[in-house]
Design goal:
alpha+beta; three-stranded antiparallel sheet; 4 helices; 3 strands; 45% helix
């Protein structure tokens, strides 16, 4: 005669890690000031890539010019990487970081 033994009850806990919090924070794309590109060109690129109005693109361009940098987009990591690559393709200096 065989006996069936039920498995012992085990409490499983989700791993606690600070990494999950890092994934929830959005990434921001920062455009930095440079001595090469004209202000009108930077404004045009902002309009073309992000669909900003002339007023919004001009405001961001002036922030880059006066403050040295401006946040032009935010989102998940993949979107931010794409935005940085598109800005680089247009000759602008851009980086990304978690907000």
């Amino acid at each position: 005669m065989s006996t069936i033994v039920a498995p012992a009850e085990v409490d499983l806990q989700e791993p606690v890690s600070g990494d999950s919090i890092e994934y929830e924070r959005p990434w921001v794309v920062i455009v930095w000031n440079d001595p090469i590109n004209l202000m009108s060109y930077v404004t045009l690129v902002f309009q073309k890539l992000f669909g900003f109005s002339l007023q919004k693109a001009t405001q961001l361009m002036l922030q880059v010019h006066n403050d040295g940098k401006a946040v032009v987009s935010s989102g998940n990591r993949e979107k931010s990487e794409l935005d940085v690559a598109r800005l680089h393709a247009h000759g602008l200096w851009a980086t990304m970081q978690q907000d």
